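Lecture 7, part 2: worked example. A protein chain together with IPE.
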Amino acid sequence: MQEPQHVAMIMDGNGRWAKARFLPRVAGHARGVRRVRDVVECCIERNIRFLTLFAFSTENWKRPEEEVSDLMGLFASALEGEINKLWRNGVRLRVIGDLGRFSPRLQTLIASAEARTAANERLTLTVAANYGGQWDIQQAFRGWLRDRLATAEDIQSLPDPGDIDLRPYLSMGYAPDPDLVIRTGGEQRISNFLLWQTAYAELYFTDTLWPDFDGRAMGQALAWFAQRERRFGQTGQQVRIVAC
Ligand code: IPE
Ligand code: IPE
Ligand code: MG
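Predicted complex, written out as structure tokens:
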């Protein structure tokens, strides 16, 4: 069965989950954190090597101050509460995004969680926080340019667009591109997630709200993925011959 190496998730629907139960939105976010545990465990069981979770977008700062502060608080407590278990389970944690906007305490927690789990190899869990796909391409280009300016003697000779290799400069230069992107909550959009890296991802949209997305729902998404024929621009006949 075809299994993805890298699954990326847009965890959407926490607010609607809470609203349906007459609860404050933060209750939906708190329930959502529990689902992260299930999905991490499922990936370990299925031998999936990379799991990337969209936790907070560059646009989410536009939410009410109280919700933003609740989300920051949950992120900090999840980091503190889960890091030992993640480490024991062989998970390497990475956090991508423009982290400079977070409080110094949260930045320290992130750095120490990343350092603590840096040598783990079973599953790389990437949390995208204050992340935007457009920001990622901009910061990659800045890095690329900085390296060129430092070494180039003739800055006039710009390379062809196809030779501008931004991949090592993107936030996820350490991982293969996602094979499967799952979005919960019913919307069918990317919302500025991994724009460059999802060029050939299979996109799975489900109406299930993130706080209800359990191991069974994850199994259904993986079964759907297993049926996909990935062609990468070739014809179906070509890829079937190679697969034989
Ligand atoms: C996703 O759930 C969590 C974040 C974006 C942080 P939402 O909070 O967007 O939930 P809905 O879309 O309002 O239901
Ligand atoms: C996408 O959800 C971002 C995250 C899951 C972190 P949003 O709820 O912010 O997306 P839009 O605004 O509905 O597109
Ligand atoms: Mg939403």
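The helical segments are 14-20, 25-45, 65-88, 104-117, 133-151, 215-226, 236-243. The chain has a mean pLDDT of 95. Keep this in mind for problem set question 3.
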